[in-house]
Design goal:
CATH superfamily of the largest domain: Bira Bifunctional Protein, Domain 2
Strand content: 15-25%
Helix content: 25-40%
Largest sheet: 8 strands, mixed
Number of helices: 16
Strand order of the largest sheet: 6-9-10-22-21-20-17-11
Length: 594
RNA sequence: GGGGUGGUAGUUCAACUGGUUAGAGCACCUGCCUGUCACGCAGGAAGUUGCGGGUUCGAUCCCCGUCCAUCCCGCCA
């Protein structure tokens, strides 16, 4: 083997005449007859090496047979290029390496796609050959940034006196929250471990143990359906602290994100992040993770609707519904056809009954759509109050509050992207606080935790727990960046009686609570400090930092949206023997729906 | 679980309203070429049109089913 003296990204004119050695992959080759140029690549860069028939016939003949992605080592002399052949686009563009000795370590089959052009192949194809895709410039850079962020994270928490503690990967399954990935136990036949959805209970126990500042960079697993920003296994920065209140944790979270953005991007985020209550976020933006890079707030049309002639909307208002709207400054961009498409999308995806609209052409009165239901007086009040200008179109949805807010929230985003209202260079972090503690589950006619069952109610609302659980705010908080939820957490319950009361409200009786969370409840008998914490979605942070919308861009070996790994073809079948050891029997496929 | 888009040469794409021998770029192979860096020139090989069925004289194209990818809704304490 020829051991390298340099990497492929560092040789310059300073090294002229030096005898050096390089190792790398053949990224490109140009055979000019008696002269062969090869771009030799490693993760540091590219250096052009030259084989000259007249100077070194033997190595030249071997070089003639080299193909793309062969791995070689070369020994040679750094020479300067003729001035007309200098490549100013390359760091190493002023020199060549004139090869004396060539060693071929591994010849590559014809590569399934062009490593120099990541998008020369479909994503499916690239995922099959992920180890090759990881050779591309983009992914090398993404993985490097991920590494930098991991280091910056450990540095930050360590500096602030947090200690990293590992928690089990095989743990107890709890039916709360997301679906668990289960691991059958061989020794205890018929019993299962679960992979952690998060180390939630462990970190609370660590607080009881007195590790008052804990963090961990940890894999979590949730067996649900996936999206461009969600994978079955993902990495969290998990944090828990004792003797703190909500502000202590959000301050810490703010400072951590500021540090990360500064270290990775050299960007100064605001001193204080915007804080919105859940209600404000929902009512103003139709989302609990609003993208604040653009304004376009939802407008309430209630007071105009009740004085209009539009019975449908009036009835909605009278039966506790909502009528809200968004305003767009481009009426011309919304033809009948476009509006129909938007309507179909909202009907299909967000179960609205319709999308109403009106336009304003001359700045004085409303036209088209549902404008005829509003008399001149109301029209001019709306134009005035809502700042409607000529050329505006206003989209209106009336329905149950949940439907109106989620549909308009989605429409707001869709239109913003259509109209290029999103400043891609902007960072808009915010905290969303005062989440409701419970969410009414219509299917099961019961209250569910919105966050998780250990979340503390807001102390001011504890008296409402019995009569009006839907109105109880939690001490839960989410941190949002550019429309992505990048983290969240809560102050936890550290009192056995309050915890037991919450379990009861969640329809978990004492026996059940004891079976599922008895260990935690027991721990709370022995001096549990007030505590709280949060977790950041590490993959999403990296996604934002590299400017991608796909979580697969920041994970070395990601899964597809159907949770498969195309490269190693997992999940896969296992031997009957393995199943038998685990006391497992598989159902026939046609029994699937039994 | 539901909806949208896509699957054609190694790869990225094309192929009119269902019609004759399914084309092109890159990669690959052969030959030529001493300053290329998207090298150039000449030639060549390369196809189960995802899979299964149906309609038709005839299917890459239409229909049904299925698999895979991707985006979204539900879901994700």
């Amino acid at each position: 083997m020829i051991k390298r003296t340099h990497t492929c990204g560092e040789l310059t004119k300073k090294n002229l005449k030096e005898e050096i050695s390089l190792n790398g992959w053949i990224s490109k080759s140009r055979d000019l007859g008696g002269l062969i140029f090869i771009d030799l690549r490693d993760r540091y860069g590219v250096t052009q090496i030259v084989f000259n028939e007249k100077l070194n016939k033997k190595e030249f003949e071997i070089a003639k047979k080299l193909g793309l992605e062969d791995v070689i080592g070369v020994n040679g002399q750094v020479i300067s290029r003729p001035s007309e052949a200098i490549n100013s686009k390359m760091v190493t563009g002023e020199i060549d390496v004139n090869v004396n000795k060539l060693c071929v370590y591994n010849e590559s089959d014809n590569p399934p796609f062009d490593i120099n052009d990541r998008f020369s192949a479909s994503e499916e194809h690239r995922l099959r050959y992920r180890y090759l895709e990881l050779r591309t410039k983009e992914l090398q850079s993404n993985i490097l940034i991920r590494d930098k962020a991991l280091l910056a994270t450990r540095k930050y928490f360590s500096k602030n006196n947090f200690i990293e503690i590992e928690t089990p990967i095989l743990m107890k399954s709890t039916p709360e929250g997301a679906r668990d990935f289960l691991v059958p136990s061989r020794i205890h036949s018929g019993k299962f471990y679960a992979l952690p959805q998060s180390p939630q209970t462990y970190k609370q126990l660590l607080m009881v143990s007195g590790f008052d500042k804990y963090f961990q960079i940890v894999k979590c697993f949730r067996d649900e359906d996936f999206r461009s920003d969600r994978q079955p296994e993902f990495t969290q920065i998990d944090i828990e602290m004792s003797f703190v209140d909500q502000d202590d944790i959000t301050d810490m979270g703010t400072h951590f994100i500021q540090t990360l953005w500064k270290e990775i991007l050299d960007v100064d985020l605001p001193d204080k992040f915007t804080i919105l209550t859940y209600k404000e976020a929902m009512n103003t933006y139709g989302s609990d993770k609003p993208d604040l890079r653009f304004d376009m707030q939802l407008m309430n049309l209630k007071k105009y609707v009740i004085n209009s002639d539009f019975d449908t909307f009036k009835n909605i208002i009278n039966s506790d519904g909502l009528v809200k709207a968004v305003k767009v400054n481009n009426a011309d961009g919304y033809s009948r056809k476009t509006i129909d498409e938007l309507t179909k999308w909202l009907k299909d995806q967000y179960s609205v009954k319709g999308l109403a609209f009106f336009k304003c052409i001359d700045g004085e009165k409303l036209e088209g759509g549902i404008s005829k239901f509003f008399n001149e007086n109301i029209q001019s009040r709306m134009i005035n109050d809502l700042g409607i200008k000529s050329g505006d179109i206003v989209f209106v949805i009336g329905d149950k509050p949940k439907i109106v807010l989620s549909a308009l929230g989605a429409l707001r985003l869709k239109i913003a992207h259509r109209e290029n209202l999103v400043d891609e260079n902007k960072w808009s972090p915010l905290w969303v606080v005062d989440f409701p503690l419970f969410d009414w589950n219509e299917d099961h006619k019961r209250w569910d935790s919105l966050h998780h069952p250990f979340t503390s109610p807001n102390f001011d609302d504890i008296k409402k727990l019995d009569d009006n659980p839907g109105d109880v705010r939690s001490l839960g908080y989410d941190i949002v960046m550019n429309g992505y939820e990048i983290g969240g957490g809560s102050i936890r319950i550290h009192n056995k009686d309050l915890q037991s009361k919450i379990f009861n409200l969640l329809n978990i009786n004492d026996k059940e609570a004891n079976e599922k969370f008895g260990f935690l409840m027991n721990a709370f008998k022995y001096g549990a400090p007030p505590h709280g914490g949060m977790a950041f979605g590490f993959d999403r942070l990296i996604m934002l930092l590299i400017g991608s919308k796909k979580i697969r861009d920041v994970i070395a070996f990601p899964k597809t949206t159907s949770a498969m790994s195309l490269m190693d073809d997992s999940p896969s079948k296992v031997d009957k023997k393995q199943l038998s050891e685990l006391s497992l029997l598989l159902k026939e496929k046609n029994e699937k729906n039994v």
